[in-house]
Model the fold of this input.
Amino acid sequence: MSALAPTIGADAGSAAPQVLWYINPTDGDVPWEPAERVTPTFDVIRQQARTLDRLGFYGALTTAREAISLVGDTERLRFLIPEYPGVKPPVLLAEEAQVFDQYSGGRLIYNQVNGADPVLHRYGRFGSKQERYRVSAEYWTQVKKLYLDDTEPFDGEFFSYGPRYKPAIPGPRQPGGIEVWGTGASPEGIAHAAEVLDVYLSFMSEPDSLTRLFDTVRGAAAQRGRTLRFGVLASVIVRETDEEAWERFEWQLSRTRPETVLATADPNLRSFGFPGLDEIRSDDPLVQQRIDALRAGRIPGREALEFAPNMAAGLTTWTAAEPPFDIAGKGTGTYFVGSAANVAAAMSRVAEQAGIDVWILSGWPLAAEAEITADLLLPLLQQPARSTSGIVGQ
Done:
């Protein structure tokens, strides 16, 4: 396996994509199944962080709770940390960012999350979707200024604060300010992305749909005189052969109890505004097969989950908060599955079609699959890849 490899995609202007992985204490061979998880300890995420840093991943998507505690275990790994705009005052968040970069040497990225209503209500945010995006635009505009040591008072529509009253926090400042990555597919979300974000993110949905979304966001940004980069979240199972990879995919399904998936499927659909499991329908016959299987109390098989060569709808650790097996078309559980050559070809074709600059990948167990991915797949993403399994989306 790789040892202290050069940081993958370190230069934003390079042709190679920036590749991030995932850090989370919910881990194991089948971590969405409670009985299959490892004990969530600090040592688990420290091992993940050290592994990703050694392998040369550009960064890692983390929760907001643990990232700064992992700085001492890493040298170059960047941390993509979620924040809900407005939960913390903008001055406080900017100071936290300065401290993080003081200790890490400038390795923080913010993942802005506007979230679903139940999540935001827990944090005391009760505005409408339209208001939330206006709040977020003002919030991140001020956080970026404050991070770069702006000292002036501010009195805006949603936030107010006085002049800086203490010496600046020492340490490096990232050129141009702290980067903010995020998403938003509604008209309000796209307008917000065009105004605020540096990298626009999406789950790996069907390639043509993904391309249309990214083109819409590009156009909105261009109208504001801005240029964004684009990133995609997906899971991967890469092996020496397609057969080995699919065997792993199907083994994980075999270890998943229908009861686990069904316990959250209906409430998660409804929390995102979709009909419940007993009502939802799809014009896509493969998606309808998945819905029918779940209604019958079964886990869908590969024949219903594989929707393109080397691409399938699966389960992840965030499935507990999302509709399972992509039955609502959000792309939250999309996997690339197969040999390194075929997966690299599938990813490269999607990247070329949609214009993808950043991949945020995952696979379980997190550290072990990161090793395999770094060894087999990532070298191929640095160069044109040839597939033996067909064209993505055909």
Notes: The chain has a mean pLDDT of 91.
